[in-house]
Amino acid sequence: MQRTTDLFFKFLEILLIVLLSGMAIMVFANVVLRYAFNSGMSVSEELSRYFFVWLTFIGAVVAFREHGHLGVESVVALFGRTGRLICMILSNIIILVCSMIFFWGTWQQFEINASMTAPVTGLSMIWVYGIGLFTGAGMSLIALERLFRYVTGRATAEEISMFAGENLTIEQMAERT
Fold first, then answer.
1. In the chain, where the domains are located
2. What share of the chain is helix, strand, coil (3-state, %, to 5)?
3. CA–CA dist 146, 93 (Å, integer)
4. What is the pTM of this model?
5. What is the pLDDT of residues 47-57, one digit of tens each?
6. Pairwise CA distance, residues 98 & 159, whole Å
7. Where in the numbering of this chain does the Tripartite ATP-independent periplasmic transporters DctQ component domain appear (predicted)?
C-alpha cells in the first residue's frame, strides 16, 4: 500500500512539473506573440490561469503530505513529547475539519460550476473549481491517517521532532526567515 501511495504522489509531482511548464510556456509564447507580432492567444491566458489553480491546489496536498506547510515550531518546541502529540492531534483535527468543509462546499457548488462554461475555451468550470474535491479529499485522508497513527501511539520520534522543527539544520532554518 505504501508503494502505491508513493507512486501516486510521484505522479502528482510530475503533474505539478507539467502544469508549471505548460503555464510558463503558454505565458512566454503569449508575450512573444504580443510584443513581436502584435497578436496573442486568448486560450493561453485562460488555460494558464486554470493551470495555476490546479498547480496550487494539487501542490497543497503534496506539501501537506511532506509536512511542508507553515508551522509554529517555536511554540511547539517548548512542549515535551505529550504536549507535542496533543498539538499534532489538534492541528490535524483542525485541518481535517477545514478540508471536509472545503470538500463539502465544492460538492454543493458542483452542479452550478458544471453548468457554467469558460468564456474562451468553453470548458465546463467544474474542471477548474472541481479541484477542490481532490484537495479536500486528499488532505482529509492524510489528516485521518495521521490522526489514527497519533491516537494509537504510532507516531515516530522523528515525526514528533519534525513537527517541533528540531530536524532542521541552521541553514534550513535561515532559509525559512
1. 1-66, 71-177
2. 75, 0, 20
3. 10
4. 0.85
5. 999 999 999 99
6. 22
7. 23-151
